[in-house]
């Protein structure tokens, strides 16, 4: 018995000594995070990780120890070092294994730099602005925007959450599989795919699989992560379609000399479909909700004026206020607001002036980066697109704009997302005023998912009223 006690005491002393001698223990943070990451994990299961980290940054500053081997940062130096040093920054952690599709690694879920850059080479040109701006792609997005508007103006109170998800799904699927993309705004069978991809409760189930991989095969069926059989079938069919448009993503992935087999191509496309629906859909939803508030009518009117005064032929990048409104929406409600975890490379690195040993998990989260630099974003909780119109400080604001991440592993779909958002807002706010519907009961708080977020009650009811200048 005595031997057992001695062993326990020695073990505890070793853990204690190891924790206190690590350079991470010298960083700011609550005392318990020197010894355990349990508080962090608890907050993850409660879906409050983002807020837990944000509160710690507010208390301890731009560097916070979250666990004995995990640190969060908010400074520009840290963002550059972690996500952009050497081009694409540090390698991803195994957390991204959760994003494999059909059990296969995609570009997003490839952890190491080398594998990632090889995959990226295969498809990056499809997401270049020159390809997104092709007439065929633009016409298809504009058609979807018109379908969205006609849906929303048919009745008085309309749930835009639903139709914005349809819009985003139709946009990304047409881009990838043209001419066989989805039309979920118009066809009930395609609408079912939007529902399958959108309505799920899978955060805790995914976390259980991540933290207890050895037990995962024995989990009962109600603990299995969400399935999406209709989407899987659709993606497989698309990966094998006979003559897709030459500028679509799938054409590039299955071309004769492509190193990807059909299964890998299907997995890659399914990933982009998932990446493109909630992000663009929820980003637009939070933004339209905010624009529809009484307090934001001035911004809505200013946006309408710009859209009314520009001809339909004006290129989308020549509407500065439209750009400012979208950026401010993504600043305040980043669709992926949570940490993007990375491993410190071999030998350790100095981040924000502090040495961090190799293998430590480090990250920054857009939610905090966009709110904790009050010198760059004064009154940060306030929605104020005008801040992006001021010449002074614009470079600093752009440098700290982190909604799409940064570096070689930043968002590949950024150009597509921006164009989709611009076209939709142009179609709506050039003609209509939107207001919150009287029967809107849902909560629009940011609700965290595995790394993305969505409006808590997944509903957002608005009224569309035609502007007098348009109807007269
Ligand atoms: C407003 C809309 C969007 C936002 C805010 C957004 C944000 C992001 C962020 C923050 C990342 C990096 C995440 C990380 O490192 O953990 C990312 C990666 C990615 N996004 Fe987006 N995204 C959006 C729309 C899209 C769309 C429309 C697509 C494609 C159709 C897309 C495809 C991707 C892909 C493929 C990656 C992985 C990039 C890589 O690993 O190299 N995203 N996105």
Automatic annotation (TrEMBL):
Q: Offer one Pfam family short name for this entry.
A: p450
State the species of origin. Answer: Aspergillus nanangensis
Signal peptide location in the record?
1-21
The answer, when asked if Phosphoprotein is one of the entry's keywords, is no
Q: Which residues bind heme?
A: 411
UniProt name for this protein = Cytochrome P450
Going by the UniProt record, its keywords in alphabetical order are: Heme, Iron, Metal-binding, Monooxygenase, Oxidoreductase, Signal
The UniProt family comment states: Belongs to the cytochrome P450 family.
CDD domains with a match to the protein in the record: CYP_fungal
Q: PANTHER family of this UniProt entry?
A: CYTOCHROME P450 (PTHR24305), P450, PUTATIVE (EUROFUNG)-RELATED (PTHR24305:SF164)
Kindly list the GO molecular function terms attached to this UniProt entry. Answer: heme binding; iron ion binding; monooxygenase activity; oxidoreductase activity, acting on paired donors, with incorporation or reduction of molecular oxygen
* Superkingdom, taxonomy of origin: Eukaryota
User: Could you say which cofactors this protein requires?
Assistant: heme
Under the heading InterPro entries, the entry gives: Cyt_P450, Cyt_P450_E_grp-I, Cyt_P450_sf, Cytochrome_P450_monoxygenase
